[in-house]
C-alpha cells in the first residue's frame, strides 16, 4: 500500500499554491503582450460535412493509351449483335475509340468494372435490363465482360426475357427484356360503329395503354433484385408513329384519352403509371435504376436524310453544346428533350438515376456508322467494345454505393 499522506502535508501544499494562483494572470498578460495570438481561420460548413460521393455525371474523357491493349472482351464475344461489332466489321477506329477513360469533374477516373469482383459481389442475384435496343447494347456489354472470366453459363429466358444468362458458379443471372415504350401498344383501327376517336377523324394508328406494362417485362419486377430501365427513342420516332398516317392514340383504364395527347404528354403519363407499377411489384429490397437517354450523333440530316457520323475523335465541349442545344432544335436534340421528361417523372420517385447522357454526348466517334450493315449510317447504337462498357462501370460504382448505403 502507498504510504499515507499526513493532513499537515496537504495544508503546506495549499499554502504554497495560493501565491502561484495570484501570479498566473500576470504571467499570462506578459505572454499575451510578447506573443500576440494569430488569427485562426474559421472552419467552413463544408469541412464539417462528410466527404460527398463523386458525381460521375459531369466531366470529360482523357486519353488512355493502354486501354486498347487491355481489352475486357473482344470481337469474338457471341452476344455482340453483328451490326455493333465494330472491330470485326472493320471500322477504321474500332480499337482507337477505346483509348479513352471517363474522368468526372473533381474526382479520380471512374473505376473500371472488375468482372471477378462483380461476379463475387453479386452472387445469387438477378439483374434485369428493361428497355429498347440501347439497353440491349448495355446488357451485351456486361455479359461480354463477365463471360471473359466465367464461361460456364446457362442461356435461357427468365421471366419472359428476350434473352438471358446465368453464370452458374455464382448463380448470377443477367437478362434483357425488350420493350420500346415500357407500356403495351399495338395497331388500332377505327370501329365501324364509331366512337370518341372516330368522331375526331381518327381512322388508324397505334393504341398505347399508358397504365398497362408491356408483357415483355411485367413479370421482371418480381424476379429481379436489380432493374435498369430506359425508354425514349421510340417516343420521338415519326418513322414508326407517323403523326398523320399512324399516330399514337392513348388509352387509360381501357378508354381513349380525350382530348387526344401528343407523344410527350403520353410519355409523362406512361412514366407516372410505370413508376407506380414497379414500386408496387418489385421484390423486397429490390434496387431500381432508370438510365437517362443515350444521344444520337447524326450530322448533315437525320438517319433518313443522309445523316452520317464519321468522326474519329470525341467531340469538344463546345461541339457538344452545339450538337445538343435544345434552342437550336437540331437533329439530335431528342436526347435532352427526353431527359426533361425523365427527370420530371423521377424527381419524387425512389428510382436511382443512372446518368449516362453527358459522358455519351462526347462520343460521336463510337457509333457503328457505315459498318453497321444498314442502308444508312447507324449513329444511334454503340460499338462493342465501346462507351457502353463505361455505362457498366458506372452501374457497378452505383451498385457499390447503394450497398454501402443499405449496409
TrEMBL record:
Residues 53-108 form the Trichome birefringence-like N-terminal domain. It is found in: Golgi apparatus membrane. Keywords: Disulfide bond, Glycoprotein, Golgi apparatus, Membrane, Signal-anchor, Transferase, Transmembrane, Transmembrane helix. It is a single-pass type II membrane protein. The keyword Cytoplasm does not apply. GO terms for cellular component: Golgi membrane. Coiled coil: none annotated. One of its GO terms (molecular function) is xylan O-acetyltransferase activity. Residues 110-397 form the Trichome birefringence-like C-terminal domain. It comes from the Eukaryota. InterPro entries: TBL, TBL_C, TBL_N. Belongs to the PC-esterase family. TBL subfamily. This is Trichome birefringence-like N-terminal domain-containing protein. It comes from Lolium multiflorum.
Amino acid at each position: 500500500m502507498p504510504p499515507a499522506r499526513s493532513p499537515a502535508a496537504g495544508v503546506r501544499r495549499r499554502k504554497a499554491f495560493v501565491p502561484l494562483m495570484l501570479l498566473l494572470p500576470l504571467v499570462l498578460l506578459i505572454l499575451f503582450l510578447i506573443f500576440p495570438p494569430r488569427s485562426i481561420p474559421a472552419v467552413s460548413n463544408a469541412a464539417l460535412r462528410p466527404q460527398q460521393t463523386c458525381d460521375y455525371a459531369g466531366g470529360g474523357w482523357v486519353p488512355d493509351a493502354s486501354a486498347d491493349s487491355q481489352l475486357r472482351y473482344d470481337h469474338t464475344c457471341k452476344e455482340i449483335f453483328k451490326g455493333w461489332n465494330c472491330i470485326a466489321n472493320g471500322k477504321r477506329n474500332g480499337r482507337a475509340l477505346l483509348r479513352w477513360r471517363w474522368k468526372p469533374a473533381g474526382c479520380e477516373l471512374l473505376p473500371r468494372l472488375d468482372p471477378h469482383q462483380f461476379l463475387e459481389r453479386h452472387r445469387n442475384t438477378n439483374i434485369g435490363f428493361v428497355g429498347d435496343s440501347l439497353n440491349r447494347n448495355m446488357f451485351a456489354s456486361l455479359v461480354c465482360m463477365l463471360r471473359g472470366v466465367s464461361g460456364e453459363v446457362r442461356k435461357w429466358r427468365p421471366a419472359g426475357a428476350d434473352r438471358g444468362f446465368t453464370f452458374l458458379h455464382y448463380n448470377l443471372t443477367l437478362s434483357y427484356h425488350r420493350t420500346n415504350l415500357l407500356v403495351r401498344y399495338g395497331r388500332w383501327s377505327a370501329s365501324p360503329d364509331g366512337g370518341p376517336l372516330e368522331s375526331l377523324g381518327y381512322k388508324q394508328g397505334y393504341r398505347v395503354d399508358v397504365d398497362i406494362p408491356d408483357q415483355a417485362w411485367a413479370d421482371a419486377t418480381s424476379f429481379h433484385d436489380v432493374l435498369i430501365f430506359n425508354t425514349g427513342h421510340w417516343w420521338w420516332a415519326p418513322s414508326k408513329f407517323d403523326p398523320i398516317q399512324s399516330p399514337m392514340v392513348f388509352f387509360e383504364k381501357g378508354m381513349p384519352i380525350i382530348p387526344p395527347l401528343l407523344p410527350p404528354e403520353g410519355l409523362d403519363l406512361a412514366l407516372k403509371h410505370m413508376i407506380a407499377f414497379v414500386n408496387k411489384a418489385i421484390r423486397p429490397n429490390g434496387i431500381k435504376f432508370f438510365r437517362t437517354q443515350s444521344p444520337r450523333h447524326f450530322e448533315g440530316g437525320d438517319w433518313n436524310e443522309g445523316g452520317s457520323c464519321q468522326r474519329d475523335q470525341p467531340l469538344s465541349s463546345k461541339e457538344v453544346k452545339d450538337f445538343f442545344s435544345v434552342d437550336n432544335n437540331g437533329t439530335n436534340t431528342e436526347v435532352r428533350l427526353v431527359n426533361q421528361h425523365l427527370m420530371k417523372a423521377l424527381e419524387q420517385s425512389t428510382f436511382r438515376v443512372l446518368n449516362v447522357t453527358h459522358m455519351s454526348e462526347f462520343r460521336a466517334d463510337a457509333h457503328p456508322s457505315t459498318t453497321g450493315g444498314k442502308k444508312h449510317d447507324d449513329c444511334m447504337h454503340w460499338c462493342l467494345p465501346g462507351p457502353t462498357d463505361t455505362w457498366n462501370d458506372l452501374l457497378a460504382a452505383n451498385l457499390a454505393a447503394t450497398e454501402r448505403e443499405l449496409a
